[in-house]
Design goal:
Layout: E1 4-7, E2 10-13, E3 18-24, E4 31-39, E5 46-52, E6 56-59, E7 67-72, E8 77-82, E9 91-99, E10 104-107, E11 111-116
Parallel strand pairs: 2-11
Antiparallel strand pairs: 1-3, 3-8, 4-5, 4-9, 5-6, 7-8, 9-10, 9-11
Length: about 120
């Protein structure tokens, strides 16, 4: 069973920064994309940012220019640098990995990010 282990959440004031990290518990060669989702209370889980093999990246509009995703798909690691944080960024952030061979997604346990105004 593959586990995604996350770290780096916490409490920060508006305008501050946090860096999230995620790594797979064992190497999975068939992962071709990794990313971060978030879910705020009473809202659906949304994709925040994703990095795909070949270093293609995608961001939701609300974080463009403030968040930066990076990582090494081959090593099954991904990071999310979050700058200029806003209270509306408050949510539980989940690491995600897409396994194209097994047609499945892996998820982290979630890490809380709270931005105070």
């Amino acid at each position: 069973q593959v586990q995604l282990v996350e770290s780096g959440g916490g409490l920060v004031q508006a305008g501050g920064s946090l860096r999230l990290s995620c790594a797979a518990s064992r190497s999975i060669f068939s992962i071709n994309a990794m990313g971060w989702y978030r879910q705020a209370p009473g809202k659906q889980r949304e994709l925040v940012a994703r990095i795909i093999s070949g270093d293609s990246t995608h961001y939701v509009d609300s974080v463009k220019g403030r968040f930066t995703i990076s990582g090494d798909i081959a090593k099954n690691t991904v990071y999310l640098q979050m700058d200029s944080l806003k209270p509306e960024d408050t949510a539980v952030y989940y690491c995600n990995a897409v396994d194209v061979l097994r047609h499945t997604d892996y998820w982290g346990q979630g890490t809380q990010v709270t931005v105070s105004s």
